[in-house]
Design a protein that fits this description.
The protein folds into 2 domains: 211 residues, no CATH class; 64 residues, 2-Layer Sandwich (Alpha-Beta Plaits), CATH 3.30.70. It contains 15 helices and 2 strands. Strands 1-2 form a two-stranded antiparallel sheet. Helix 6 crosses helix 11 and helix 10 crosses helix 11. The two termini are 33 Å apart. InterPro entries: 4Fe4S_Fe-S-bd, 4Fe4S_Fe_S_CS, Electron_Trans/Redox. This is 4Fe-4S binding protein. Keywords: 4Fe-4S, Electron transport, Iron, Iron-sulfur, Membrane, Metal-binding, Transmembrane, Transmembrane helix, Transport.
């Protein structure tokens, strides 16, 4: 969908509008940095104008004081209830990068039962690295640690570490095993993205795991008209995510299934309006 691609590009620029930061290697510290953007976008990216919700959540559980993240969780709940995983499909720059990499001609690994099972891994990673480990660090060491951002997140390596290293040579003096590990994970993600559609989103991303909990409840998203649907599963065969059915927890509401449906039973938009329309049509019939 050309519209989705355009929105993904615009989102990347809106999230990272501090273009001079990429040249001078300085992280934006303006007032907008206190506001979380919906998608995964590293706070330390020199172009970032806002905060990453996942990073902000971990920051609340890190440091010398253990604080309940009312503000961050409130925003994440708002994003989830409004959009669900539409954020992943339309408003996440790192997801967009993976899609671009997948366009590189190469043999492709398509979804199967194994990949569907692997999608559960992101929930385990989220629980362990975003919540449990930071709290354990706090009680054992006295200082919490943003475990996911520090030890796993390849988006941070790509969007923050590499640009900052390119403009701040003195940072290279402090590189060690942790950076090498993060760089290795980034390379694995890049290579995997060439042959597997959005592997980080499907198997690793805790933010996508969180938003998936709201996919069926969200105001905006994919809907299927069950009256029109003939159960041919053309939509599922078209989908490159691990969806068992349209709109389930793995659906990123990309809309690629819409044109595939032979009876035009799939739509993308406000679920409330669609539900009202279906009720009206059923009443008239």
């Amino acid at each position: 969908m050309a519209k989705r691609t355009l929105i993904q590009i615009l989102t990347a620029f809106l999230y990272n509008g501090n273009l001079p930061g990429f040249l001078n290697g300085r992280i934006w510290q303006g007032p907008s940095k206190s506001i979380c953007v919906p998608g995964l976008n590293c706070y330390s990216c020199p172009g970032a104008l806002g905060a990453c919700p996942l990073g902000a959540l971990q920051s609340s559980l890190s440091g010398l004081l253990l604080r309940f993240p009312f503000y961050v969780l409130g925003l994440m709940l708002l994003f989830g209830l409004l959009f669900g995983r539409t954020v992943c499909g339309w408003l996440c720059p790192f997801g967009f990068i993976q899609e671009l990499l997948y366009k590189i001609p190469s043999p492709k690994f398509t979804k199967n039962k194994a990949t569907r099972t692997l999608t559960k891994l992101k929930y385990i990673i989220g629980l362990l690295f975003v919540i449990i480990l930071p709290v354990i660090f706090f009680y054992v060491v006295g200082v919490g640690a943003p475990a996911f951002c520090k030890y796993i997140c390849p988006a941070g390596t790509l969007e923050a570490a590499l640009p900052l290293l390119s403009t701040n040579p003195f940072l290279k003096q402090n590189l060690g095993m942790l950076f090498n590990w993060k760089l290795f994970l980034l390379l694995v993600t890049v290579i995997a993205s060439i042959v597997i559609y959005r592997p980080f989103c499907r198997f690793i991303c805790p933010l996508g795991a969180f938003y998936s909990l709201f996919n069926k409840l969200s105001y905006f998203g994919i809907q299927v008209d069950n009256v029109k649907c003939i159960g041919c599963d053309a939509c599922i065969r078209k989908c490159k995510m691990d969806c068992a059915k349209v709109g389930d927890r793995e659906c990123i509401n990309c809309g690629e299934c819409i044109d595939t449906c032979p009876v035009n039973a799939i739509s993308l938009g406000s679920k409330v309006k669609k539900a009202d329309t279906n009720v009206a049509e059923a009443t008239n019939n």
